[in-house]
Amino acid sequence: MLKFGKPSRKRRLALLLSFVLSAAALGTYLYTKDSRQFQALTENLFYSELSDNTLSLHYTLAFPENYGIHEPARLPSYDPEADNSEEDIRSMLRQLSEISPERLSDEDAYAYELLTRYLSLRLAGSAYTYYSDPLSPSSGMQSGLPILLADYTFRSSKDVEDYLHILDQTDTYFDGLIEYEKEKSENNLFMSDASAGKIIEQCCSIMDKDALSSGTHFLHTTFEERLDAMLQEDLITEEQKSQWISENDRLLTTVMTPAYERTADAFTILQGSGSNDMGLCYFPEGRSYYEYLLASTTGSSRSIGEIKTILFNDFEQNMTALRSLFLQYPELSAISSLDAVIFPYATPEEMLEDLKVRMKADFPAFPVSESIDFTPSYTIKAVSPSMENYTSPAYYLTPPIDDMSNNIIYINHKNAPDRLTLYTTLAHEGYPGHLYQTVYSQLYMNQKKTSCIRYLLHYGGYVEGWALYVENLSYHYAQMLVQEQSPLTAAYYEACRLNRNIQLCLYSLLDIAIHYEGATPAKVQAILRELGITDRDTVSAIYAYIVEEPVTYLKYYLGFMEFTILRNAARNLWGKDFTLQRFHRFILETGPSDFQGLEHRLASWKLS
């Protein structure tokens, strides 16, 4: 019988060291295995999502070839028989469940958390196949597609060719949307006659035949302007420019215009098939769909009851503040537009430059990369007159993640804003709003080599909530401009801020009342009458917009409220170490997220 004696101390140390090294090797393997799995899953998802839609690809990546994407230009089309989105989401969630987030880096673990919730929410939304409206009157693709086409950047000849291929597929694209609307109608979920009438009118006016025949349509002029710029840089020849202009003219006339005509014809036929011209709750699953839409659009996980409480309290606080302001400055009731006389800046460029200076105390500078101080450029453009009726008062076009140097802000001059409104609008769209937030967060995530999937996860409440949050701060910047010269005008600016918040908060509450609680036009009219809004056309317009665009006001205002709540939480958590700049840095460096993620992240965030 073999006997084993006790191992020597040296032997025990060797065995222990061997075990420790083996355990460390196993741990490293497990960590890298999960990291590799997560990276492969997210990169495949990133690739497949962008490869199927050249428009999304082009607005996400300036140079897709650097990411291994070499797909031909494609505009996706609705195909009910090929729709397996629910199965795909379940498959991705299963793959995620096989990865341990504890074995991922902090950045990947956070991306894992966000992606899991994002996909789970999308899976819940797949139950409401015919509840969305891709051709809604205010934000549908009939107006959105031309805007995207008009600003499709030409960096190379391939971009021009891809653009023309997209134009050539607009007929198939709109045919798919028509098919979807027919199926909505068959399921008694088609829009109201009034909304359908707006779509018909838009389809006829956007592709204006006189402008098309004379070559003055904005899809003619913007195309030629982009080619001229390429010609000046010696990227193309005169012969190429001439050929492409001819091809663009042909496609606009023979493909895109007929597609819009067929869409108008289809909606004319479908008019009358809608069964509900009020809130979503009057549809069979309307209330549960509204709950899903509210969560997915705003990024807030709060219950509707909690959201109402937050909004009611905010409404009361702003009303009280406004009353106090009028008691302190009785002359305010006689002021209409003093700001047009006193406000020191007139042009958008002057205003943006002033905002960039004033925000420095409250917001961090852009992240420095390789000792290079990056400052993006911006261009202010006017919305084409033919699109003024269908676009927002202003909007910002998000740049690709690999080329953030050029940024565009559009201003709709249909209803020329006064100087204060223009100033705060530019704060919303530019600095410290969309432009600043987008560029800062993308620069930071690029430097941290954040998972590519973060760039595909869209959070409307984060994006628009931030813009409204900083817009509120910009009213205080405007007050600083005039305080010394005219304290009364500064008080007027504060009254304008409070009034805007009261209005947006009211519309957010009406959104819940109409879509979740079933408020009728008569009920909404009575609510608005109590608040002094009695004009019938105004009341009808408010009701119609909220019916057509559910949760839109909440995307802005609840997002703003969530940031305010988060700021208060940071102030309590950090105590004397709290500053606005530190809080804003936390938001920007965390990047677009749902508010549950931001709340969790706040507790462990450290200033680097």
Sheet with the most strands?
3 strands, mixed
> How many strand units?
3
Poorly predicted runs are: 1-11
Helix content: 55-70%
Order of helices and strands: HHHHHHHHHHHHHHHEEEHHHHHHHHH
- How far do the termini sit from each other? 64 Å
Average pLDDT: 91
By DSSP (H or I, 4+ residues per run), the number of helices equals 24
Element layout with pairings:
Layout: H1 9-51, H2 54-60, H3 85-97, H4 106-125, H5 141-150, H6 157-168, H7 170-186, H8 193-206, H9 209-214, H10 218-232, H11 238-270, H12 286-298, H13 304-328, H14 339-342, H15 348-358, E1 377-382, E2 394-397, E3 406-411, H16 419-429, H17 434-447, H18 460-482, H19 487-515, H20 521-530, H21 536-548, H22 552-574, H23 580-590, H24 595-604
Parallel strand pairs: 1-3
Antiparallel strand pairs: 2-3
Helix pairs in contact: 3-4, 4-12, 6-11, 7-11, 8-11, 10-11, 13-19, 15-16, 16-18, 18-19, 18-22, 19-21, 19-22, 20-21, 22-24
Can you tell me about this structure?
With 608 residues, this protein is mainly alpha-helical. The protein contains 24 helices and three strands. The protein has a three-stranded mixed β-sheet with strand order 1-3-2, covered by helices on one side. Helix 8 (193-206) packs antiparallel against helix 11 (238-270), helix 18 (460-482) runs antiparallel to helix 19 and helix 19 packs across helix 21. Mean pLDDT is 91; it is low at 1-11.
Summarize the structure.
This protein is mainly α and 608 residues long. It has helices at 9-51, 54-60, 85-97, 106-125, 141-150, 157-168, 170-186, 193-206, 209-214, 218-232, 238-270, 286-298, 304-328, 339-342, 348-358, 419-429, 434-447, 460-482, 487-515, 521-530, 536-548, 552-574, 580-590, 595-604, and strands spanning 377-382, 394-397, 406-411.
